[in-house]
Structures are given as structure tokens and as C-alpha cells.
């Protein structure tokens, strides 16, 4: 295992806690706890975004955003036989759902279920060739129909059940998207003391269903500069050409140049690069051909804002085995903290 400096137990707590879009309550409680210990003011808006503010010596403000929600499901029907059918909250590839254990979050507590997978030798050729879709997924609750309908209701939330563990030089589990970046933001907040500018650390909601929390928050905060944190693709695995890797685990934090929703401000990403060089922090450039982040939410809501983004390279996104390199996590925390500590409000980001 590679050396790392961060609090693994807090990362484990964040990733293993459930929180789908619009229902981030359990994660929000952890965030508020951490913000209350390390920021000057904590507030929550009507959508559920949480902001921890560290007051600076000037009116200039920087917003840092990482989203709390993970992809999950909502129960849309419980069959007479006791199986729950699902509606997706966020972008799922139905192929990865087979033979997975889930948690159904009911008003009376969490209920375990499994998404079964029939033995392959019992399937017809037609069944083998059928395309997997979320609408065809059934959760086996281990209950008869009547008991299942009394226990689980339409509208109950469903998340994948998985632990977060160390694996070689990596950490792996569910919901690293985006809890590993939420974690990096919380860790950086601990390091910021007496900044020249006011820093708003924002834990946003509903990113996985359209950047909704960040877009609303961008209006409320009206920052002078916004930096978003999110995971990014690391396709550095067998089956991909080097040009399609996007990022590579172990090569450092990602400085975003573009994704499917935003082209970052060149002066912002160059200053991120310069800070990384000065502090001897490992980094790599990220050019993500598809997919969006909260970066765009701030740019779209309150006029022309300079925006940048820092990314944690992550393999196997939107599965229960998302994996990141511990040294990349450290580098992300280091770069964010160093960037904020050196922000004076006097850097010219206009183009």
C-alpha cells in the first residue's frame, strides 16, 4: 500500500453512507458535522446544499463545490410476488447491476435486497441476447408479496450495498463519485486559516440528475471565482488505447481543461498548474469528451464567472467498485488547499 496522509475512516464513512439525488440527508449530517468544526458559518438552503464559509480579509469570494449525491434508484412498483421494480436516479449501466446486493431505505428502516441473476445455463438464446435495461431489474426482498408490500413502498430509495476498502495502492468501493472529492474538500477546509479571500465550501445536491444544486447555489452565493471537484474517467485498463485513457491512476490529481459541460477558464487552470509546480504536487491534464460537473452550474447561473476544476482520476465509474489511487487523493487535497491559501483576489482571470 502506498503512503497517504488523509483520514481513511472519514472517507470510508462518507462513501458507505447512502444519499441519492434529492435525498442526501445522511451525507448532509456528516458534512455539517465536519463544517461546524472547521468553518466560521454553516448554512443549508431549501434544496439541501450545505455551505461552510471561512471568512477572509476581503470581499472577494471563492466557491468550492463537490456534490453529495450518488446514483441510485427509487422504487416504482412492488409486484404481487414480492419483487421491487426500480426507476433510476442518475446514469446506470444496467449490465453492472446483476447479482448485486442493495439497501432499500424505507421510512421504518433499511431493508436488504438482491438483484438476482439466473444461472446462465438455464437461459434461452433469446434471453442471453436481450439488452439489459434498468426497467427490467427486479429486487428480490426475500419476502412474500403481502409482506413485501407492507414493508417497501413506492418512492422508497435504493442504493447499492458495498464497503470501502484499501486495495494495493488504491481505495475502492461505491460512491467515490463524488464522495472522494467531497472528502478532499472537507480535508482542505481543515487546512485553511486566515485566508485573504472568503471561501465558501459547498456540498451540493442533485448533481447526478443535471447539476441542479450547483445551479441554484451559484445564484445564492454569487462568487467571484468557482472551483468544482469531481471524479473523472481513468480508462487506463486493458481494452483501451492510451489516447482514450483520459487520466491515469497514480499520475496525480487532474486539472480539468474541458468536459461535456464546460471549458475551464485558461487563466484559472494555468494558475492551478503553476501552484502545483511550485508546491511539487503531481498533476495531469484532464480532457473529458463527455459528462458534466458542477463547474458548469456556477458558470451558467449568475453571469460570466471564471471557473476551474480539479478531478480525482477514478476507474470503473458508476459501479460499486470505483477505484482511486491514494496518492492522487492526497495530491487533490494538497492542490486545493495550496490554491486557496495563495488566492488573494488580485489574480486577473478576465480574458
Automatic annotation (TrEMBL):
<dbReference type="InterPro" id="IPR008007">
    <property type="entry name" value="Peptidase_M42"/>
</dbReference>
<protein>
    <submittedName>
        <fullName>Endoglucanase</fullName>
    </submittedName>
</protein>
<feature type="binding site">
    <location>
        <position position="208"/>
    </location>
    <ligand>
        <name>Zn(2+) 2</name>
    </ligand>
</feature>
<feature type="binding site">
    <location>
        <position position="67"/>
    </location>
    <ligand>
        <name>Zn(2+) 1</name>
    </ligand>
</feature>
<comment type="similarity">
    <text>Belongs to the peptidase M42 family.</text>
</comment>
<feature type="binding site">
    <location>
        <position position="230"/>
    </location>
    <ligand>
        <name>Zn(2+) 1</name>
    </ligand>
</feature>
<dbReference type="InterPro" id="IPR023367">
    <property type="entry name" value="Peptidase_M42_dom2"/>
</dbReference>
<dbReference type="InterPro" id="IPR051464">
    <property type="entry name" value="Peptidase_M42_aminopept"/>
</dbReference>
<feature type="binding site">
    <location>
        <position position="318"/>
    </location>
    <ligand>
        <name>Zn(2+) 2</name>
    </ligand>
</feature>
<keyword id="KW-0645">Protease</keyword>
<dbReference type="GO" id="GO:0046872">
    <property type="term" value="F:metal ion binding"/>
</dbReference>
<feature type="active site" description="Proton acceptor">
    <location>
        <position position="207"/>
    </location>
</feature>
<feature type="binding site">
    <location>
        <position position="177"/>
    </location>
    <ligand>
        <name>Zn(2+) 2</name>
    </ligand>
</feature>
<dbReference type="GO" id="GO:0004177">
    <property type="term" value="F:aminopeptidase activity"/>
</dbReference>
<keyword id="KW-0031">Aminopeptidase</keyword>
<keyword id="KW-0378">Hydrolase</keyword>
<feature type="binding site">
    <location>
        <position position="177"/>
    </location>
    <ligand>
        <name>Zn(2+) 1</name>
    </ligand>
</feature>
<dbReference type="Pfam" id="PF05343">
    <property type="entry name" value="Peptidase_M42"/>
</dbReference>
<keyword id="KW-0479">Metal-binding</keyword>
<dbReference type="GO" id="GO:0006508">
    <property type="term" value="P:proteolysis"/>
</dbReference>
<feature type="region of interest" description="Disordered">
    <location>
        <begin position="109"/>
        <end position="130"/>
    </location>
</feature>
